[in-house]
């Protein structure tokens, strides 16, 4: 045994077999020599009754003094109950964020979420998260990594925030699955960007224009009766697009749409007389359970966005999305005094806070009514000068 110094290690000749030279000053610090001439610094320690060794670096890449300092740090970690060798192996075995995402979709989302959520999460991971963070190991991703990702996407705040949201869910599960230490989720202190909520409602003039265009395009054969009825049902019921697009005859009663499953679970949607009358004009196709049919096949009408683009262009409503028809239904309800609690049930909102986004519309109605009352009183009272 001798003190391991750079000069001493340089002087050691390669033997016929692999060997270890131990330092005579720092117990557990050694040098492993190979017949090829390669020399590697190591540290040996005992934890829970088991002897382990950890490589500190190759001679020539690190000096003897640097390796000695590294050995002391390892021994300090061991004294605190840590196992540096096991932690390194765990890091090497750690999946990447991309691999965690695949497991997250397969073992969590597909089992506990709606198919639409699975679709959205898969696209979010593929198009937003993985290109930036996909290659980083789950055990090594840090707050700085997440922060840089969020900052890079600042021009698309909705995507940036949803990316952090799905990462938060994934990394919480990574802790549950033993892939990260508990309570180390680095997404927790990321401040979300403000999002400008898209609210677009059709006023009465726009509603009339849309009705005229739907009728014209139906009469001229540019849209089928099924498409015509589908858009009217969206306006008359406040349903989500998927709820009408995938509506089956078994769900239709005289007064309600009885949906066994929706975005918020089972729903019982009031079916006004006008909406029921439109449904009654539709022909059924033998062997096809759906109400809104395509031109052929056994399924439902697949792409409602395609005819909608033509309809809104003809009506001069290029900025209106299909989902804005649901917003229009809600706005008409609120402006006509429908109670928010009742509207929540009609629209199938999970939380009242979602329904209360439309509350400002009732304020407008109240303001208008107050103005009419004041005008009438002022006319009766005469000049106030």
TrEMBL record:
PROSITE patterns: CB, TYR_RECOMBINASE. Keywords: DNA integration, DNA recombination, DNA-binding. It comes from the Bacteria. Residues 197-371 form the Tyr recombinase domain. The keyword DNA-binding applies. Gene3D superfamilies: 1.10.150.130, Integrase, DNA-binding domain (3.30.160.390), Intergrase catalytic core (1.10.443.10). GO terms for molecular function: DNA binding. CDD domains: INT_Rci_Hp1_C. The keyword Methyltransferase does not apply. SUPFAM superfamilies: DNA breaking-rejoining enzymes. Residues 95-175 form the Core-binding (CB) domain. InterPro entries: CB, DNA_brk_join_enz, Integrase-like_cat_sf, Integrase_catalytic, Integrase_DNA-bd_sf, Integrase_DNA_bind_dom, Integrase_recombinase_N, Integrase_SAM-like_N. GO terms for biological process: DNA integration; DNA recombination. Belongs to the 'phage' integrase family. This is Tyrosine-type recombinase/integrase.
């Amino acid at each position: 045994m001798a003190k391991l110094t750079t000069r001493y290690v340089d002087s050691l000749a390669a033997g016929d077999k692999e060997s270890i030279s131990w330092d005579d000053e720092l117990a557990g610090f050694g040098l492993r020599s190979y017949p090829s001439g390669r020399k590697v610094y190591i540290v040996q320690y005992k934890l829970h009754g088991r002897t382990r060794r950890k490589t500190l670096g190759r001679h020539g890449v690190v000096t003897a003094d640097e390796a000695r300092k590294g050995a002391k740090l390892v021994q300090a970690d061991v004294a605190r109950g840590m196992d540096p060798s096991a932690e390194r192996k765990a890091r090497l075995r750690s999946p990447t964020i991309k691999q965690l995402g695949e497991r997250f979709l397969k073992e969590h989302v597909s089992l506990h979420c709606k198919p639409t959520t699975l679709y959205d999460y898969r696209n979010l991971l593929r198009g937003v998260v993985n290109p930036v963070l996909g290659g980083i190991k789950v055990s090594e991703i840090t707050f700085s990594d997440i922060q840089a990702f969020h900052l890079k996407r600042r021009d698309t705040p909705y995507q940036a925030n949803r990316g952090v949201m799905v990462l938060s869910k994934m990394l919480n599960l990574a802790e549950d699955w033993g892939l990260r230490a508990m309570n180390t989720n680095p997404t927790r202190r990321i401040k979300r960007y403000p999002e400008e909520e898209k609210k677009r409602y059709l006023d009465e003039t726009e509603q009339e224009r849309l009705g005229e265009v739907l009728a014209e395009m139906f009469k001229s054969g540019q849209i089928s009766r099924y498409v015509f009825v589908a858009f009217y049902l969206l306006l008359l019921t406040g349903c989500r697009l998927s709820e009408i697009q995938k509506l089956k005859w078994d769900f239709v009663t005289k007064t309600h749409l009885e949906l066994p499953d929706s975005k918020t679970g089972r729903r019982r949607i009031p079916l006004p007389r006008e909406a029921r009358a439109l449904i009654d004009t539709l022909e059924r196709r033998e062997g096809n359970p759906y109400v809104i049919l395509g031109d052929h096949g056994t399924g439902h009408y697949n792409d409602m966005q395609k005819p909608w683009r033509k309809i809104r262009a003809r009506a001069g409503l290029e900025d209106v999305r299909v989902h804005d028809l649901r917003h229009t239904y809600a706005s008409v309800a609120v402006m006509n005094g429908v109670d928010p609690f009742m509207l929540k049930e009609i629209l199938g909102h999970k939380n009242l806070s979602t329904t209360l986004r439309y509350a400002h519309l009732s304020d407008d109605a109240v303001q208008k009514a107050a103005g009419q009352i004041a005008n009438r009183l002022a006319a009766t009272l005469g000049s106030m000068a």
